[in-house]
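Input:
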Amino acid sequence: MNRAPRPGTVGHVIEVNELTKRYGDKTAVDRLSFTVRPGRVTGFLGPNGAGKTTTLRMILGLEAPTTGTTAVGGVPFRSHARGLRHVGALLDAHQVHGGRTARAHLAALARSNGLPVRRVAEVLDEVGLTDAAGRRIGGFSLGMKQRLGVATALLGDPPVLMFDEPVNGMDPEGVLWMRHLFRRLAAEGRTVFLSSHLMSEMENTADDLVVIGRGRLIAAEPLREFAARSAGLGVVVATPQAAELTGVLTAAGASVEPSADAGRLTVTGLPADRIGALALDHRIALTELTTRTASLEEAFMELTADSVEYLAGRPR
Amino acid sequence: MTTTLTTSPAQTSPTRPEPPARFGDLLAAEWIRMRTLRSTPWTIGCVVLFVVGSAAAAALVYVRSLSDVPNGYLAAREPYEYLPFTAFPPPGFMTLMLVAATLGAVTVVSEYGSGLVRTLTVAVPARGSVVLAKAVVTAALWTAVGTVISLGCFLASQAVLDTKGAGVGITHPGVLRGLVVSALLPAVCALVGLGLGVLIRHTAGTVLAGALLLTLLPLLISPSASWSAPLHHATLFSAWKRLVQTWGPSPDTLVPMASVPGSWLAYALWPLAAVALAVVVVRRRDV
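Output:
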């Protein structure tokens, strides 16, 4: 393995190349390749069981890949003797010893990496846990543990940050705080990589998306492009004269489908104003006329529908 | 998505030169972890009192037995000999072995149980060094505790025996070896426990394996058959007993007895093997 930063690798890029992990005959991660760039927040999305955590664990050297490689800043993360100055990670907020205080937990970590002890107070202040520093972690709420996990990740002031489901268990204020933190870290030029199974968490946070399903790459592109790919744009019309309207709109070149709920039609191929004008011309009453833009959530669901690991109510 | 990368945006995140990775930092970190657990001082305090108390009790039993003996017999036994297993009573030290092995195991097993080990491995990817640092800190702590226990046992038992004038001084032949080997016993057992903890990673399994290896094994393996005697002698408890004991084999005995150098060797090999195995395994396995 090439240990020196590769020429052409600028900044602290996370690279994943043809990564595969098999457990017995189950393939958790399947020839996954993508790049995460500095100065941006990259969302790592996929349904539960898609292989997100396994991928993060392989990037962090906690698990050996079956085949393929990962690199952070051009070198495998495991090649570092000490890690906190290179990558800060929050994998699972419960991974702490409940018997220690937050301060002791952080002090031991700082010491192991030769970091000055003042970093402990700095990161505790950063995440708003200064008042709880002397309390045992066992008594922390999940939200406080998440904050402590973020403090751990920030301890070494690293250029690369990785968070696995960071806003789980946080209250709305905490979610907002996290979102601002991610944006700020990226604005400082750091590489910020966060996983989630909820698209809505990414909508206001991420610049780029890496979407996987059943261990395979589904999409890796800027969030805006991802949103634009979504199909299913159309106009929803409600009318008591559904049959008449269908005829009129079909004649005008649109395709019309009855919606799931009674009395509604989904029209594609004509904009809402044309539909309204046609209905008026033919004296057809409309009780609803709505342009539907697919939300990110829908785009995500559509793309990952085939790769959902655990799907309720549908035999597979 | 592997597009050509334009130049990195303002890289304000400080990329300070990294100081060299020092083993001393890992030792300091492990020491912080060890002393910030409230259970550590409590458990140690209790076990010190228990083992020292067991030596005092053994001495008291002996003193009581002296008062039952008619004076004529007593006079015949003078001068009093050094009684190694009153100063270092086996039941007390077997308990100490179990407690030390369990606490040694808990230092690593609790990290696997809570998942803290993953946080620590991201902080220090050099996993073997972390296990070594834990081993050094564990050994140092338990050697200190063992020294207190060992001296405490000897002084307490001899003080009780002295009420009948039956005690011996610390310079009496054979006392020093008993003191040293008993002081080292908890450290040796804690390292075995630590190694088992890394290998097994589950609390119940580790504690059970520790109890089997340290206390049950010497009872299960016969010391009298010629083929099993070396195995019996190689167990830690037997090695400790052989080194505390001041007498050698009697010429007419049929039961083989371990040699002193052999027992020292067993004493050294158990912790070394446990720690070496742990370092090898932890580097290969997924966390």
